[in-house]
Design goal:
By secondary structure, the protein is α/β, with parallel strands linked by helices. The chain contains 13 helices and 9 strands. Strands 1, 2, 3, 4, 5, 6, 7, 8 and 9 form a 9-stranded parallel beta sheet that branches.
C-alpha cells in the first residue's frame, strides 16, 4: 500500500549525522560500525532506498535549528542567525537530492497530484524520486517574520512553532507558558500564507492558545496519547478532541519512550518493554475511538530522529517494515478503507483541502 510519512528528519541525518541517505540502510550501518559519538550509530532505519522499498512515496521532511540560551542544557545554536544558517544548509541538501533525481519537492496541489500519478503508475519504485513537503520543526530559526516569507518562497509549507524547552515563539516539550507576542504574530502570518500549523511539541498553554487563535489547516505530525503514556509531550483526550474539531490529523510516531510507559532512555530495550507496532496501534486506536472514525490518524514516524533501533518498535529493522501495519490493523477489525485512510488518505485529504 502507498504510504505517507508526515515526519522525517532527513536533512538532519544527512548533515549532522553525516549519513549518505542514497545508500541502503545496512550500508550506512556498516559505515558507522564502531562509532560512539551518538547512541544510535549503526542503528539507523531510514534511507531513500528503504523508503522506496516500503512504498513510502511522500514524506514531510524537516528543517530544524533550535536556538538555546547560553545557560541551557539543551543542544542548539546560540543565536537565531546561527540556527537560520543551519536550516539553510539543510535546505541545500534537499536541493542536492533534487538535482540528483533522488527527491522532488511538493509545494502545490498540482505537484501533489502529479507525484501521486507517478508513484501509482504500476512501475517499480527503484528509480522514482521521493516526494517531500518541507516543514520547519521549531520556529526559533526564523530570525524575523520576514524570514517566514523567505522560507515560504522556497517551499516551506508547515511549521511547528515550538520544539523542546523554551522557544523564541512558543514553549515546547518540558516547558510551559502561553504564546508570546512573537508567537501570536507568527500564527497570524502563517495563516495569511496558508502554512500548515504543526501542533506537535507545543506545551499545553501554547497549544490551547494556538487552537483559539489559528483558523488555518492544522496537523500534528508525530504525537501520541497522554492517557496511555503520561507525559506532557503527549496529547490529552481533551486536546485530541480539539484537534478533531479542527479537522486535524495526528501522526503516529515510532519513538519508544512515547509508545510504552516506563521507558528509560539508554537503558530500556524495545523487546523487553514489549514496544512493537501493536503498541503504536494502541495509540492510533485510542484516537479513532475518540473520533468515532479513522479520519484523524496517520503515520509520522520520526524514525532516526536522534534514535535508531535501540529506541523504536522491535519489529522495525528499516522504515520499509511499516508495511506490516496494514495487516496488524486488519487483524483488529479495521477495513481496507480504514487502512487507506491511515496509511496515506487522511494526509492527502488535509493537503487537498489546504491547497485547493
Amino acid at each position: 500500500m502507498f504510504l505517507f510519512d508526515a515526519h522525517l528528519d532527513l536533512s538532519m541525518n544527512a548533515m549532522e549525522w553525516n549519513r549518505d541517505l542514497r545508500l541502503p540502510v545496512h550500508a550506512i550501518r556498516e559505515r558507522e560500525r564502531g562509532m560512539t559519538d551518538k547512541p544510535d550509530r549503526a542503528r539507523g532505519t531510514v534511507s531513500l532506498p528503504a523508503l522506496r522499498e516500503g512504498n513510502i512515496g511522500i514524506v514531510v521532511a524537516t528543517q530544524i535549528g533550535r536556538y538555546v540560551a547560553p545557560d541551557s542544557a539543551l543542544s542548539g545554536w546560540h543565536s537565531p542567525e546561527q540556527a537560520w544558517a543551519q536550516t539553510q544548509g539543510q535546505l541545500q541538501w534537499y536541493r542536492a537530492m533534487e538535482e540528483a533525481g533522488e527527491m522532488v519537492q511538493i509545494r502545490t496541489l498540482a505537484e501533489l497530484e502529479h507525484h501521486l500519478l507517478v508513484w501509482n503508475n504500476g512501475e517499480p519504485n527503484e528509480h522514482k524520486a521521493i516526494g517531500y513537503i518541507l516543514s520547519l520543526e521549531g520556529a526559533d530559526s526564523l530570525v524575523t517574520i520576514d524570514h517566514l516569507h523567505r522560507a515560504h518562497a522556497y517551499g516551506l509549507r508547515a511549521v511547528g512553532p515550538g520544539h523542546y524547552g523554551p522557544g523564541r515563539y512558543a514553549n515546547g516539550t518540558n516547558a510551559s507558558g502561553h504564546l508570546n507576542d512573537m508567537g501570536k504574530a507568527l500564527l497570524q502570518e502563517m495563516q495569511q500564507l496558508n502554512i500548515i500549523l504543526d501542533a506537535t511539541h507545543l506545551c499545553d498553554e501554547a497549544f490551547w492558545d494556538a487552537m483559539e487563535l489559528f483558523d488555518g489547516s492544522i496537523w500534528a505530525s508525530h504525537n501520541h496519547c497522554r492517557s496511555l503514556v503520561n507525559h506532557n509531550r503527549q496529547f490529552s483526550d481533551e486536546m485530541i478532541r480539539a484537534l478533531i474539531q479542527k479537522k486535524a490529523v495526528i501522526g503516529a510516531a515510532m519513538d519508544a519512550w512515547m509508545i510504552v510507559p516506563g521507558w528509560q532512555k539508554g537503558i530500556s530495550d524495545p523487546r523487553q518493554m514489549n514496544c512493537g507496532l501493536e503498541q503504536v496501534i494502541d495509540h492510533m486506536d485510542h484516537i479513532c475511538q475518540i473520533a468515532g472514525n479513522t479520519l484523524h490518524v496517520g503515520i509520522g514516524t520520526d524514525l532516526d530522529g536522534a534514535y535508531g533501533t535501540e529506541q523504536c518498535p522491535y519489529d522495525i529493522d528499516t522504515i520499509a517494515d511499516l508495511q506490516q501495519m496494514t495487516g496488524l490493523l486488519m487483524k483488529r477489525g479495521y477495513t481496507q478503507s480504514d487502512c487507506e485512510n491511515i496509511m496515506h488518505g487522511n494526509w492527502l485529504r488535509l493537503l487537498r483541502q489546504a491547497w485547493k
